[in-house]
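Input sequence (117 aa), recorded before submission:
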Amino acid sequence: MSTRPGTAGATRECPHCKATILESAVICPACKHYLRYDSDARPAQPNQVPLQVEGTIRHPADGDPWEYSVVVVIRDERGNEVARKVVGVGAMHAGDERSFSLSVEVFEARGAKPRKH
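Predicted structure, token format:
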């Protein structure tokens, strides 16, 4: 993926939480802080949300503790791994419950030129 400034997919670091975010972002998707306040800076609304998954797991009332890792993997059209991130880890004890949600939001790249194949 290209990371040159001004191209679709260009990235930068959030000055608040240090997450890697899209250069075009007005609000950091990780920490929700505003990044720009100029008059043209409006939070982008997703064109579509093609994937949204939610689920909950509950540890039974008895038994040994569980440990978990939340891993997100992105693959390209050939099945090659583009990115793999551990986004959270933790432990669950008897009676504990955790809910997880994953969504992919798609935005139109502003001012970006189409990529030639």
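Checked by second reader. The mean pLDDT is 85.
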